[in-house]
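Re: [ENG-882] Designed sequences occasionally contain unexpected residues at chain ends

Forwarding the minimal case from QA. C-alpha coordinates:
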Protein backbone atom coordinates (compact mmCIF):
# COMPACT_ATOMS: atom_id res chain seq x y z
CA UNK A 1 0.00 0.00 0.00
CA UNK A 2 1.18 3.52 -0.61
CA UNK A 3 -0.57 4.65 2.58
CA UNK A 4 1.51 3.85 5.64
CA UNK A 5 -0.21 6.20 8.05
CA UNK A 6 -3.60 7.87 8.51
CA UNK A 7 -4.22 10.96 10.60
CA UNK A 8 -7.81 11.43 11.82
CA UNK A 9 -9.04 14.87 12.95
CA UNK A 10 -12.02 14.99 15.30
CA UNK A 11 -15.17 17.11 15.19
CA UNK A 12 -15.86 17.65 18.90
CA UNK A 13 -19.39 18.94 18.18
CA UNK A 14 -20.35 15.40 17.12
CA UNK A 15 -19.62 12.89 19.91
CA UNK A 16 -21.07 10.03 17.80
CA UNK A 17 -17.88 10.01 15.71
CA UNK A 18 -15.89 8.09 18.39
CA UNK A 19 -12.49 8.65 16.83
CA UNK A 20 -10.71 6.00 18.92
CA UNK A 21 -13.18 3.39 17.74
CA UNK A 22 -12.59 4.42 14.12
CA UNK A 23 -8.85 4.16 14.73
CA UNK A 24 -9.32 0.61 15.99
CA UNK A 25 -11.54 -0.24 13.00
CA UNK A 26 -8.85 0.94 10.56
CA UNK A 27 -5.98 -0.85 12.30
CA UNK A 28 -8.06 -4.05 12.44
CA UNK A 29 -8.82 -3.83 8.71
CA UNK A 30 -5.50 -2.61 7.28
CA UNK A 31 -1.84 -2.70 8.17
CA UNK A 32 -1.79 1.05 8.65
CA UNK A 33 -0.70 3.19 11.58
CA UNK A 34 -3.36 5.63 12.75
CA UNK A 35 -2.92 8.83 14.69
CA UNK A 36 -5.88 10.75 16.17
CA UNK A 37 -5.94 14.51 16.63
CA UNK A 38 -8.41 17.10 17.89
CA UNK A 39 -10.41 19.64 15.90
CA UNK A 40 -8.38 20.40 12.78
CA UNK A 41 -9.70 23.93 12.38
CA UNK A 42 -9.08 24.91 16.00
CA UNK A 43 -5.52 23.59 15.83
CA UNK A 44 -4.68 25.62 12.72
CA UNK A 45 -3.60 29.23 12.67
CA UNK A 46 -6.40 31.64 13.60
CA UNK A 47 -6.51 33.10 10.09
CA UNK A 48 -8.08 29.87 8.83
CA UNK A 49 -11.53 30.99 10.02
CA UNK A 50 -11.63 33.95 7.68
CA UNK A 51 -10.55 31.69 4.82
CA UNK A 52 -13.26 29.14 5.61
CA UNK A 53 -15.88 31.89 5.63
CA UNK A 54 -14.87 32.80 2.05
CA UNK A 55 -15.96 29.34 0.85
CA UNK A 56 -19.61 29.78 1.86
CA UNK A 57 -22.17 29.39 -0.91
CA UNK A 58 -25.17 31.65 -1.18
CA UNK A 59 -26.29 30.89 -4.72
CA UNK A 60 -26.85 27.23 -5.53
CA UNK A 61 -27.25 27.85 -9.25
CA UNK A 62 -23.94 29.56 -9.90
CA UNK A 63 -20.38 28.31 -9.89
CA UNK A 64 -18.17 29.18 -6.93
CA UNK A 65 -17.39 32.81 -6.34
CA UNK A 66 -15.23 33.71 -3.39
CA UNK A 67 -17.42 35.20 -0.67
CA UNK A 68 -16.26 38.29 1.17
CA UNK A 69 -17.12 37.45 4.77
CA UNK A 70 -18.44 39.81 7.42
CA UNK A 71 -16.83 39.95 10.86
CA UNK A 72 -19.88 38.16 12.20
CA UNK A 73 -19.46 35.32 9.70
CA UNK A 74 -15.81 34.88 10.71
CA UNK A 75 -16.92 34.79 14.34
CA UNK A 76 -19.45 32.06 13.51
CA UNK A 77 -16.60 29.94 12.11
CA UNK A 78 -14.55 30.39 15.28
CA UNK A 79 -17.48 29.35 17.45
CA UNK A 80 -18.49 26.53 15.10
CA UNK A 81 -22.01 26.53 16.44
CA UNK A 82 -23.69 23.25 15.38
CA UNK A 83 -27.08 24.91 14.77
CA UNK A 84 -25.53 27.24 12.24
CA UNK A 85 -24.21 24.23 10.36
CA UNK A 86 -27.59 22.99 9.26
CA UNK A 87 -28.18 26.10 7.23
CA UNK A 88 -24.77 27.10 5.81
CA UNK A 89 -23.20 25.50 2.76
CA UNK A 90 -19.49 25.43 1.90
CA UNK A 91 -17.78 24.64 -1.39
CA UNK A 92 -16.16 21.28 -0.64
CA UNK A 93 -13.17 21.62 -2.99
CA UNK A 94 -12.39 25.16 -1.81
CA UNK A 95 -12.57 23.98 1.79
CA UNK A 96 -10.29 21.07 0.94
CA UNK A 97 -7.73 23.44 -0.61
CA UNK A 98 -7.71 25.52 2.56
CA UNK A 99 -7.18 22.45 4.73
CA UNK A 100 -4.32 21.49 2.41
CA UNK A 101 -2.56 24.79 3.09
CA UNK A 102 -2.29 23.91 6.77
CA UNK A 103 -1.17 20.30 6.43
CA UNK A 104 2.22 18.95 5.47
CA UNK A 105 1.08 16.28 3.04
CA UNK A 106 3.11 13.47 1.58
CA UNK A 107 1.90 10.56 -0.51
CA UNK A 108 2.18 8.02 2.30
CA UNK A 109 0.18 9.84 4.94
CA UNK A 110 -3.55 10.19 4.40
CA UNK A 111 -5.35 12.90 6.38
CA UNK A 112 -9.06 12.56 7.12
CA UNK A 113 -10.82 15.60 8.56
CA UNK A 114 -14.26 15.27 10.16
CA UNK A 115 -16.42 18.39 10.21
CA UNK A 116 -20.02 19.32 10.86
CA UNK A 117 -19.83 21.95 8.11
CA UNK A 118 -22.11 21.05 5.21
CA UNK A 119 -19.99 20.59 2.09
CA UNK A 120 -21.39 20.88 -1.43
CA UNK A 121 -19.93 20.63 -4.92
CA UNK A 122 -21.05 22.27 -8.15
CA UNK A 123 -22.30 19.75 -10.66
CA UNK A 124 -21.64 20.68 -14.30
CA UNK A 125 -24.32 18.30 -15.54
CA UNK A 126 -27.25 20.19 -14.01
CA UNK A 127 -25.47 23.46 -13.14
CA UNK A 128 -26.19 23.53 -9.48
CA UNK A 129 -24.64 22.73 -6.13
CA UNK A 130 -25.38 19.44 -4.39
CA UNK A 131 -24.65 18.60 -0.76
CA UNK A 132 -21.88 16.02 -0.35
CA UNK A 133 -20.99 13.71 2.51
CA UNK A 134 -17.50 13.13 1.26
CA UNK A 135 -14.73 15.10 -0.40
CA UNK A 136 -12.18 12.48 -1.39
CA UNK A 137 -8.42 12.51 -2.05
CA UNK A 138 -5.83 13.81 0.44
CA UNK A 139 -6.74 15.56 2.71
CA UNK A 140 -10.17 13.97 2.65
CA UNK A 141 -13.15 15.60 4.31
CA UNK A 142 -16.12 13.78 5.83
CA UNK A 143 -19.07 16.09 6.46
CA UNK A 144 -21.31 14.73 9.21
CA UNK A 145 -24.04 17.18 8.20
CA UNK A 146 -23.54 16.05 4.59
CA UNK A 147 -24.19 12.43 5.59
CA UNK A 148 -27.51 13.52 7.11
CA UNK A 149 -28.50 15.99 4.39
CA UNK A 150 -27.03 14.70 1.10
CA UNK A 151 -28.55 11.23 0.59
CA UNK A 152 -32.26 11.81 -0.02
CA UNK A 153 -35.06 10.80 2.32
CA UNK A 154 -38.03 8.79 0.94
CA UNK A 155 -39.91 10.66 -1.83
CA UNK A 156 -43.16 10.34 0.10
CA UNK A 157 -41.55 12.15 3.05
CA UNK A 158 -41.08 15.29 0.94
CA UNK A 159 -44.60 14.95 -0.52
CA UNK A 160 -46.08 14.64 2.97
CA UNK A 161 -44.24 17.77 4.03
CA UNK A 162 -45.38 19.71 1.00
CA UNK A 163 -49.02 19.47 1.94
CA UNK A 164 -48.52 21.61 5.03
CA UNK A 165 -45.53 23.43 6.41
CA UNK A 166 -46.72 24.06 9.97
CA UNK A 167 -44.42 23.04 12.80
CA UNK A 168 -46.87 20.42 14.05
CA UNK A 169 -47.05 18.88 10.63
CA UNK A 170 -43.25 18.67 10.30
CA UNK A 171 -43.08 16.93 13.67
CA UNK A 172 -45.83 14.52 12.66
CA UNK A 173 -44.16 13.65 9.36
CA UNK A 174 -40.80 13.18 11.07
CA UNK A 175 -42.42 10.77 13.51
CA UNK A 176 -44.06 8.79 10.69
CA UNK A 177 -40.70 8.18 9.00
CA UNK A 178 -38.55 7.84 12.12
CA UNK A 179 -35.67 5.43 11.65
CA UNK A 180 -35.82 5.52 7.86
CA UNK A 181 -33.13 8.16 7.64
CA UNK A 182 -30.32 9.55 9.77
CA UNK A 183 -31.03 12.41 12.14
CA UNK A 184 -28.71 14.72 14.06
CA UNK A 185 -27.02 12.79 16.88
CA UNK A 186 -28.21 9.50 15.43
CA UNK A 187 -26.60 6.55 17.27
CA UNK A 188 -26.17 4.78 13.91
CA UNK A 189 -23.75 7.44 12.71
CA UNK A 190 -20.64 5.58 13.86
CA UNK A 191 -21.20 2.55 11.59
CA UNK A 192 -21.98 4.82 8.66
CA UNK A 193 -18.64 6.56 9.22
CA UNK A 194 -16.75 3.27 9.01
CA UNK A 195 -18.13 2.90 5.48
CA UNK A 196 -17.07 6.39 4.41
CA UNK A 197 -13.59 5.85 5.85
CA UNK A 198 -13.30 2.63 3.81
CA UNK A 199 -14.39 4.53 0.69
CA UNK A 200 -11.71 7.17 1.25
CA UNK A 201 -8.93 4.66 1.82
CA UNK A 202 -9.79 2.42 -1.15
CA UNK A 203 -10.26 5.41 -3.45
CA UNK A 204 -6.95 6.98 -2.46
CA UNK A 205 -5.14 3.68 -2.81
CA UNK A 206 -6.66 2.45 -6.11
CA UNK A 207 -8.15 5.55 -7.76
CA UNK A 208 -11.27 3.43 -8.20
CA UNK A 209 -14.31 5.29 -6.92
CA UNK A 210 -17.23 3.57 -5.26
CA UNK A 211 -19.00 0.30 -5.95
CA UNK A 212 -22.23 -0.30 -7.84
CA UNK A 213 -23.40 -3.07 -5.51
CA UNK A 214 -25.83 -1.94 -2.82
CA UNK A 215 -24.69 -4.60 -0.38
CA UNK A 216 -21.09 -3.33 -0.50
CA UNK A 217 -19.83 -0.74 2.00
CA UNK A 218 -18.22 1.13 -0.89
CA UNK A 219 -21.61 1.80 -2.49
CA UNK A 220 -22.20 5.49 -3.24
CA UNK A 221 -25.66 5.91 -1.72
CA UNK A 222 -27.93 8.63 -3.06
CA UNK A 223 -30.77 7.60 -0.77
CA UNK A 224 -30.76 7.33 3.01
CA UNK A 225 -32.42 3.92 2.65
CA UNK A 226 -29.49 2.62 0.56
CA UNK A 227 -26.94 4.15 2.91
CA UNK A 228 -28.50 2.37 5.92
CA UNK A 229 -28.71 -0.83 3.88
CA UNK A 230 -25.06 -0.97 2.78
CA UNK A 231 -23.55 0.23 6.06
CA UNK A 232 -25.82 -1.33 8.69
CA UNK A 233 -28.05 -4.11 7.30
CA UNK A 234 -25.41 -5.55 4.97
CA UNK A 235 -22.26 -4.15 6.63
CA UNK A 236 -19.83 -6.01 4.40
CA UNK A 237 -17.76 -5.62 1.27
CA UNK A 238 -18.52 -7.30 -2.03
CA UNK A 239 -16.19 -10.09 -3.08
CA UNK A 240 -14.25 -7.83 -5.45
CA UNK A 241 -13.53 -5.18 -2.84
CA UNK A 242 -12.84 -7.65 -0.05
CA UNK A 243 -10.26 -9.15 -2.44
CA UNK A 244 -8.67 -5.76 -3.01
CA UNK A 245 -8.33 -5.16 0.74
CA UNK A 246 -6.92 -8.65 1.30
CA UNK A 247 -4.33 -7.91 -1.39
CA UNK A 248 -3.37 -4.60 0.26
CA UNK A 249 -2.60 -6.44 3.45
CA UNK A 250 -0.70 -9.23 1.71
CA UNK A 251 1.54 -6.90 -0.24
CA UNK A 252 2.41 -5.02 2.92
CA UNK A 253 3.75 -8.03 4.81
ZN1 LIG B 1 -17.81 -3.45 -3.78
Amino acid sequence: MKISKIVLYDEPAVPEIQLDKIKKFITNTFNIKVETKGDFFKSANNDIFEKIATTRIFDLKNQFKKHIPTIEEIQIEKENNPHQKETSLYDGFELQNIVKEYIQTNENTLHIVFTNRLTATFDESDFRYHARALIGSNPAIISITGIIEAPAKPKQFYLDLMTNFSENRIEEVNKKYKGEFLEYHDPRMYEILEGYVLQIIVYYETGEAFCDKKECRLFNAHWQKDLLHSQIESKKLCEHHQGIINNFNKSFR
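QA comment: On inspection the terminal residues look reasonable. The chain has one domain: 5-150+182-252. Proposing we downgrade this to a documentation issue.
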